[in-house]
Amino acid sequence: MILDRCDIPLVLAPLAGGPSTPELAAAVSNAGGLGFLASGYLSAAELADRCRRTNELTERPFGVNVFVPGPAGDVARVRAFAAEIEGHVSGVGAQLGELRHDDDDWDAKIDYLLGAPSAVVSFTFGIPDEEVIAELRARGTEVWVTVTSLDDARRAAAVGADLLVVQGYEAGGHRGGTSDAPDEAVGLIALLQLITAHVATPVVASGGIATGQAIAAVLCLGARAAALGTAFLDSSEAATAPVHRFALHADAPTRLTRAFSGRTARGIENDFLRAHSESAPAAYPEVHHLTSPMRKAARQAGLAGYVNLWAGQAYPLTAAAPAADLVRDLWDQTQAALNQAASHFLQ
Question: Which residues pair with 265 in a beta bridge?
Fold first, then answer.
């Protein structure tokens, strides 16, 4: 497995929507972990450019994450939601975005990744067809699938996934499994135990991991590595917006919401999230396109109340540091935690 070639069992979560950069992915890989590039919201051509730039920055393996397309949302419900949020959108000097459904350039991205194989391709928002997985594996690419339930894990293993990214309820950003229902979310520790007890496929743990102690915990629960996203948002190599970086140094609670994108995601509470979470429909990416101009204008103006401030539940532990320093520091903490536990209980 690719993780066997990594000196440190730490994976960079993809961080689609802005923070992901070639510099960040390369820094994590060069430090001994496994960096990832997000392809979400990019065209296949933009992804190809970012892969080329990452290859110029590292000779180590890195992965690419791809969104699996879902069904179209209920247009009537999306139109009703558009009418509800129009005042907030115009209040930041923006207009509603186009109400449309798309597949995030799925076919072109898969064609690119088949023609220019990556070490790892991970999938989020669903489980790709068995044929897609088989074609990628035939070209030497390791295939990972994000799962948020035992059922997801069994289905992904059955179609040939090499590894399961087990994402707990605590995770920042979008829920990555097949289910978008908040009431079906499971905490990481419980989910890891359930999946490793019933599915033989190797796992990486993701969700609310911000310290070496947490990395040690998931390794003890059978994970091959820990995936961290929020922990890297304030790294110098990340393209995180200043308004988002500033919010990471507060202590407001996080909450699951569909208000910004139409898909359940965890973010730091703000005005827009509180006002519209209850009414937002399950309609991704239609709602994402509707709110995109508002979010862009708010980021530029520094208006934190109208930006999707994605963050996991442990985000107050986030530190501003170069990514390589963070990888090494987290691994030192992990080893110290494992050694401390051994000294306490294995005497």
Answer: 174, 257
Position 304, amino acid: A
Q: How far apart are CA 94 and CA 92, in angstroms?
A: 6
Q: Are 185 and 287 in contact (CB under 8 A)?
A: no
Look at phi and psi of residue 173 and say left if phi exceeds 0, alpha if psi is from -120 to 50, else beta: left
User: Could you tell me if 246 and 268 are in contact, meaning their C-beta atoms sit under 8 angstroms apart?
Assistant: no
Q: Which residue is associated with the tokens 């540091």? A: 321
Q: Within 10 Å of residue 273's Cβ, how many Cβ atoms?
A: 24
Rounded to 5°, angle at Cα 202 from 201 and 203: 115
Q: Express each pLDDT in 159-211 by its tens digit.
A: 999 999 999 999 999 999 998 888 888 999 999 999 999 999 999 999 999 99
pTM of this structure: 0.95
Contact 159, 197 (CB under 8 A): no
Separation between Cα atoms, residue 19 and residue 329, nearest integer Å: 21
Residue ranges of the chain assigned to CATH 3.20.20.70: 2-69+104-240+316-345
Matching CATH number, 2-69+104-240+316-345, of 1.10.10.350, 1.10.3720.10, 3.20.20.70, 3.60.10.10? 3.20.20.70
Tell me the per-residue pLDDT of 224-270, one tens digit each, with 9 for 90 and over: 999 999 999 999 999 999 999 999 998 899 999 999 999 999 999 99
